[in-house]
From TrEMBL:
Its EC number is 5.3.1.1. It comes from the Bacteria. This is Triosephosphate isomerase. Substrate binds at N9, W10, K11, G172, S204, G225, G226. It comes from Duganella sacchari.
Amino acid sequence: MTNKLIIGNWKMNGSRASIKALLAEIVAAEVAPGCEVVVCAPSPYLAMCAHILSGSGVRLGAQDLSAHESGAYTGEVSASMLREFGCHYVLIGHSERRTYHHENDAAVACKTVRALEAGLIPVVCVGETPHERESGQTEAVLSQQVLALTTALSSSQLTQIVIAYEPVWAIGTGHSASADTAQQAHATIRRYLNAPCSILYGGSVKPDNAAQLLAMPDIDGALIGGASLNAKAFLTIAHACLDVDKPC
Ligand SMILES: O=C(CO)COP(=O)(O)O
């Protein structure tokens, strides 16, 4: 049975009350067999989420981490802190961080190493901008982003990471990549990675397109933004892997 990984990225949304309500619904639902469900919460809520999720099948993730192990880095959160507060996963190099915080491929690779050292599973985000796609640079961009990882990580470390293909033009736009377009990009990433990693698709994944995307041979799960803030939508997506033709 192939495991599908379904990750919700709440971004900078929620409050104590709304997160408690959202998690209550997610925890109460049965996780589809062969499907790992993860929620990536804003840092201040991680401890509360870890408490609520303990004993459930749902795993916790963070949305970023420091490239440093510890020290005088005001405002940063280290990998070991995330691990200590119950995180199993951490998102790295989301396009919003690459754009607004100028994170480059080298910083992303460094954070990935920090996460692995602390026992976290890094979910490294890659993807091209609209301009890069329109000008035919998609493969070049993806190969460059993957090269930073294959250069910085040992071959055994490479097998422990998860990649999320998130085309920037599909994030928060309501216009997901088609299943064929996403499959093509995933196959490209897999070829350049040359390691048995899970590759998730992210970018306007919704209940009505999840099954089609998850049915593609190189799509091993989904990274969900907006729809993960609604328990019903998120759980419908998580259950979509049961509907695909191949076992999940
Ligand atoms: O950025 C994303 C997940 O990390 C995708 O966001 P949306 O699902 O809202 O498009």
